[in-house]
Structures
1.
Amino acid sequence: MSRRDEYIQNLKNQLDQWNADIAKWEAKAAEAQAEAKAEYDRRLEQLRQHRDQAMQQMTQMQSATGDAWMEMIKGADEAWARMREAYEKASSHFRAK
């Protein structure tokens, strides 16, 4: 497996994990009282936005070749770092509830 394939596979694996956790949190939000539900929904929306940006970056990387792919790594790393930060914030919030 090439470095590129490994990198993209790692991104896919992380997205799968985040998507599974988001689905659990969405179920938890659906059961929450009105005030808590609004907070869950707000955090989930932020998380979904970051996830969608990360997924878009991954999709672009899959079709990039050569030098373009190398340049995209920086952008992908930044998008994934933002997603990871949003995920950690949401995770700590949902674990506390």
Note: Residues 66-96 form the longest helix (31 residues).
2.
Amino acid sequence: MKKLITSAGLAVLGAASLNAQQIYAPAPGLTTTQLSKPWSVSAAIRGFYDDNYALTPKSGIIDPVTGEKIKPRDSFGFEVTPSAGLNWAMEQTYIGLGYVYSLKWFEDRPEHKIDQSHQANIKLNHAFTDRYKLDLADSFVVTREPDLVAPSNAPNATIRTRQDVLRNYGNIMFTAGLTDQMGLSLGYANTLYDYRDNGAGSLSALLDRMEHLGTVNLRWTVAPSTVLLVGYQFGVNDFTGNTDTLIPNPHPTAAHPTLISDERNNFSHYAYVGADHSFNPQLDGSIRVGAQFTEYNNLPGKNEDNVSPYADANLTYKMTTDSSAQLGVRHSRIATDAAALDQENTTVYGSLNYKLLPALTGSLLGQYQYNSFENGQPTAVGSSITFKDKSENFWLVGVNLTYEINRFLAAEAGYNYDRLDSDLGFRSFTRNRVYVGLRASY
């Protein structure tokens, strides 16, 4: 099957240029323009150059029809991105609605020159009292760019594959102050993935799923700047492709030689301890450390299980209201687009937003992922070659400069570099992109 592989470099591009003005508290995600009124509109246009727009492996791939070798192709193009938002900030309640549309045109494509994306977001925060709070959010995306597919709470999600997909992520969190020192958080998150690609071994067969995640955290405030916690999460991956994955069955005596989508179903128990600490008014830190127990409860023949480390930590440094930096790391077991049950993933990510001049802001974003396929099966039926001890290294780097011409208009330019080095065949690639454009906001 022809694999279309990508990076998350556009996440850098999108995050750096979604708004020309700095995002800051007290209403996270809102700019100064958006805070001045309950509605806002924005539109951007940019020209770009992409040296691997088809996301072809650097070794090339063989066309199954003609037998010819297809190599990476480059293209110039342009992108138009209008957006609109509604924001109501009341004494105890905040409600936010947002929609972003993107149209990209590629000059080099002989057919299907246009890619389109839709993003819709809903957010509700309500404080019943000083001790009882409720947070609701939903994010709906239709796109083919993997950086838009990964939910914001999952920096280590699978983001190497470019294909048309519908993704919906919703979550609810209730926080209660039991006493002045003790608190309880109860949460539930649901994520749906539905890829257009179909057929045996397709992305739909491998990645279509519904994820459920329940969370219970018991928090203890040991000092005004320090909170300790103990937590538990229960996660379920329910694969819905209902198609042959072409993954060889780990039990050779089973009736079917390869796995069907739902035979990769699994559930995980996460147990961890952690802390949230404010080192000073500018520097905040958070850490969670524990273990993830995963059981593959629907494999033919017998169940299998795995125990792996779980960690999630980050530091945020607010230099000024216009400049900040973040560094984080996350380790867990997640779904994969490769022919394996899943993958163990370590992601290190960071960002820097800095106001270089009163009108000039620069941003730098980066991410590194290490993925290992310790639960991989033989690469072909009857083969002795397995995914065990196979791994991938994935880097992305993005730089953006934004110059505010006035409070409504800004110019921007940027560069993105993505690279995947994989032990698996026909996956490694590199990609370079540059862009320049204008953004108007009101």
Note: The helical segments are 9-17, 32-35, 146-149, 203-207.
3.
Amino acid sequence: MSGRDNVAMEKLSGRVSMLEDERHIGGLMAQYAHLIDHDRVAEWVDCFTPDGRFEVRRPGSEPLVTLGRDALTEFATSRPPRAVPTKHFASQVMTEVEGDTATSTSYFAILSDIDGGPSLNFYGRYVDELVRCDDALWRFKSRIAVGESRQP
């Protein structure tokens, strides 16, 4: 192979790696939603680093900050049981990967069954910091849900 071919292969390899990382991060975001919606607490907590931060900012309220896996477990298990699980949705995901770290922003919406009918409960945007861990999996170092509107 010529030097030019080597450069082209290196560029292609870099683009493929970036696409793989973005796909894995997108998969993490999907896992996060499915796991919290179906009370799979231990697996949901594993979406975060051991010192992971989850913060919820609701309009007109003080931020709810949860730090570390023990606190994340407590947060997830303290959610009241529901006859119909909530559904978390994320869209318009924009991710920037730099080596073993990444940042991402996306819109979110949470649907609930309120008073016997479907309702948009809460929406806003996620602001994420992610890291590739020693096991090669991407996890949230920090996930902040910045609420823009909420059902009373």
Note: The domain at 3-150 is CATH 3.10.450.50 (Nuclear Transport Factor 2; Chain: A,).
4.
Amino acid sequence: MFAEVAVVGVPDEKWGEAGQGDRGDEAGKKATRRTSSTSPASASPASRPPKSVDFIEALPRNASGKILRRHLRDPYWAGKDRQVN
């Protein structure tokens, strides 16, 4: 299973915003596209998997351990007039 996963909204031409997954490495393992084929989002028919997934070393966290989603989302929205929700 995944050690760390976060999904944030990124710009999308058709919908205004789409899901972007960010996956951190498991302890001692490197993430690969093959190992990510069975994601929690694809396990349920009511859920839709993210449009794309980025593999990063570790997800940014604050002092209490909460994932800082704004740090993941901000690079995609740079230069945009507003963020669509």
Note: The domain at 4-77 is CATH 3.30.300.30 (GMP Synthetase; Chain A, domain 3).
